[in-house]
Each structure stands twice: as C-alpha cells, then as structure tokens.
Amino acid sequence: MKNYSEFRIDKWTQNATPDAKIILHGSAVGAISLSELQGLAAPMTANGVVAETPEGPVDSDLVLTYGDVRGSHKLRERIAELHSSDAVKFTADNVIITPGSITANYLALANIAGPGDHVICQYPTFPQLHLVPRYQGAEVSLWKMKAGTDVWDLRMDELEGLIKPNTTAIIINNPNNPVGLILHLPFLQTLVQLVASKHPHITLYSDEVFSPLFHDQSFPSPPNLVSLGHPKTVSVGSMSKSMGLPGIRIGWVISPDLNLLERVMTARDYTTLSVSQLDDGVAVYALSPAILPALIRRNLDICAVSIGMIKEFLERNEGRGVEWVCPPQGAGTAFLRVLENDDGNGNGGKPVDDKDFAGELLKETGVSVVPGGYCFGEEDGDDDLKGFIRISLGAPREKLAEGLQRLEVFLCRRRVGGTKLEE
C-alpha cells in the first residue's frame, strides 16, 4: 500500500461534501428506504408468474452472529440465477459476496495481474480498474474511447493492436462510468470470439455495477459478460449503483473460473470474515422476483427524468460553452464538457481547467460536481478529458433542478462561451 497514490475521485468527494449544499457528485441512483422498498412488492412477475413476496427485508428473529463466509447461500444462488443464460448456468459456488464492489474489484484484479503481466483497460472508467493492476506491478495499456460527433466510440481494431504476448486481462465497464456508453451484445460477442480464438489465456473482466441501468432502448439490453460462455470471464456487481442501496455494503464477484475464485477467497480472508447478515438479508429481499423489476423501473425512471432535465439545461445554455458528446446510454451519470469564453487571446472554445472550475463552483454556489479530467484522466498523460464534469443522474429531482440553476448562473457570471443571462 505504500506505493499507492491518492485515489482522486474519492478524495475529491470526501473533501467537497462538508461544504456542499447540493451534492451532484455521486453516481448511485437515489437511495431507497426499507419501507419504500417493501412498498414495491408485486403479486406477480413481469412474465405473469405469481411471485412469492418475502416477509420483509429484515428478520427480527435473526441472531446477529457472523454470516456465511462467502455470503449466504440464498443470496449467492439468486445472483447466480440472474447471471445465467440458456447456454450457461451458474450456481452459488460461482459467486463470492464482498463488502461492496470496490472490494470485489480490488480482490479480483489483484489476483489477475501482477509483475510481468500486461493489462488492457477501457478508458475512461472508474480509476480503480486500471490503477489496481498498475499498483500490483502490471503494465497497463488504456483502450481509449474517442469523443466523436454525438457518440463515444470504442474501436475493436484498436484493441487488437494493444494485445501483447503477456497480456493477462482485458477490463471493460458496462455500462460505463463516467460517459454512459453501453457495449451491446454484438460488441461483446466479437470481444469474446477474439479472445477465445486467438488469446484464450486472457481473462475478460467486466465491471457491471451500473447494470441494468440501460436508458437507450434502441437495442436490446446487453447480457452480463459471464453469461456468454467463455471460461475465463469475470463479472462484478453491486447493490449500490443501479439498485439505489449503497447503505448495504454488498458487492460480488461471479465467474466460471473456480480457480480464480479460490484465489480471491484466499485474499479476502485477509480483509473480510463475512459481510453483515443484515446487509445480506436486505440484498436477498431487493433481488427477489417480487421486488427487483419494480426497483429497476423506479431507478430507470429517476434517471430518465434527470436526463430530460439536463437536456433542457443544455438547450437553454446553447452557445454558452457547456455541452455533452451525447446523452448517457446507461449508468448513473452525465458527462458534460465546459469550454472557455473567447478572451481575445485565442482561448475561445478551449476546455476549462475542470478542477479549478469544480472548485470555484463549489465555493461560490455550494454545488459539488466531479471534475472529469482531474478524477478520471491519466495522472501524467494526455489532457483528453480536460474540461469535463460529471453530474449525478440519481440526485433528488428538486436538488438536481436547483443545482442546474446555480450552475447556469455560475456559467453566466463567468461568461463562458456567451453573453450574461438576466438573473
């Protein structure tokens, strides 16, 4: 741990929270209460099958001792079921429960890459995914998404050029944090076929903590990577981001590779005896057939409203130097780019310093956003994310509305890209 540098995104939000009046720096969908969760219970599933409604998220007779080491069999069995397909069937033995996905990622990545290894990681993404392999001594190449015209693009031909003889893993994030890109089934199938046919030793690793928050319905929602049948795949999930339950620290690793899972368990023994039985029980309840469809529908609706509000904000401020490449297709955040006003010295249209911008926004308005270039960009690399800020889609509607209004006034005061609005 002595070689680890500051984890910028977490440090930024930790430092910003005490001074923030409106927090828009999160990525989880609005947290739900236990009573609201119970209110989602439906008598039958979306397929018309009668659903057995659990008694409640918390068993008052539960003896509060240590839980099962790998997580309860009931929770692991349900997660296995949710990741299975017609061709691939998982059991509880394929699942390990962890205290949140951040622990799942850490343990799994630390067992996939080390000194002498090479890892390829989709970029930008949650920085842990490429920093942990690097701090474990692996060489890391970034598979960069390009900001095009109305689209973020991730090219398969560029991936092929990054693969080396010592490549041990290819890491993706689907749907993506922070830009919201979805990697659809044809893309995932091409990825699996490439690795299976030419590089069968490579592990395909997918952080799916925002699945199934898929907003773009132009295509069918993609499956979990592990369901595609390749033996060296890993999916990581969580109850926090897409489920709106970050208060229960439940994440998981699922894989057909039982050898990898045993190595993860060996490492986990140094960090975790068991997850909380209370957290485990709430997760079982939330993932039950009687609750889960309504919970996901609730969270998709929250994000849809937020995307609409941000679209309206951008339309109101067209020409004032704030834009997005495209609306997020999935996940829980919007990624906006802020440009400098023309100061007469040829700086018009250049991206702002997003760290300074976010810091001044917080100080002057009390609105906290994530500076995209500072928190997601390469620490010593290109400025390809300079000027981006990340805004939560899961914030309460009234908070997002007020935060966008304050951001609009702040932009006008700075005269970013246009004339000042009447306040």
Automatic annotation (TrEMBL):
Recorded superkingdom: Eukaryota
Gene3D superfamilies in alphabetical order: Aspartate Aminotransferase, domain 1, Type I PLP-dependent aspartate aminotransferase-like (Major domain)
Statement: the UniProt record of this protein carries the keyword Coiled coil: no
Residue ranges occupied by any Aminotransferase class I/classII large domain in the UniProt entry: 58-407
Record key words, sorted: Pyridoxal phosphate, Transferase
PROSITE patterns: AA_TRANSFER_CLASS_1
GO MF term list: pyridoxal phosphate binding; transferase activity
Alphabetized PANTHER family for the sequence: AMINOTRANSFERASE FUNCTION, HYPOTHETICAL (EUROFUNG) (PTHR43510)
Name by which UniProt lists this protein: Pyridoxal phosphate-dependent transferase
Native species: Podospora didyma
Lineage per the UniProt record: Eukaryota, Fungi, Dikarya, Ascomycota, Pezizomycotina
